[in-house]
Design brief:
Blueprint (H helix, E strand, L loop, with lengths): L5 H11 L4 H8 L3 H8 L8 H10 L18
């Protein structure tokens, strides 16, 4: 997954879990504003640790995979 896809994918997972942004932010121990930034793809203002905490609250984890083509690894 590419970095710009993280927020929209987390949003999909949140909706599948039938949680509001506030619900998931509370579960992750972060503010709803910070969570909203993550979901909108504004990940430059959100740490990897925060993404990890949010994913953990949804029952997922970060997995780094290599690319077959030239470039840096994607999350």
């Amino acid at each position: 997954m590419k970095l710009h896809e993280i927020g929209p994918n987390i949003k999909t997972l949140r909706k599948a879990a039938k949680l509001t942004q506030s619900d998931l932010a509370d579960l992750a121990g972060i503010s709803r504003v910070t969570y909203g930034r993550l979901e909108r793809g504004e990940i430059a203002t959100v740490s990897i640790k925060t993404i990890d905490i949010v994913l953990s609250a949804l029952g997922y984890e970060i997995d780094i995979k290599g690319k077959e083509a030239f470039g840096i690894p994607v999350l």
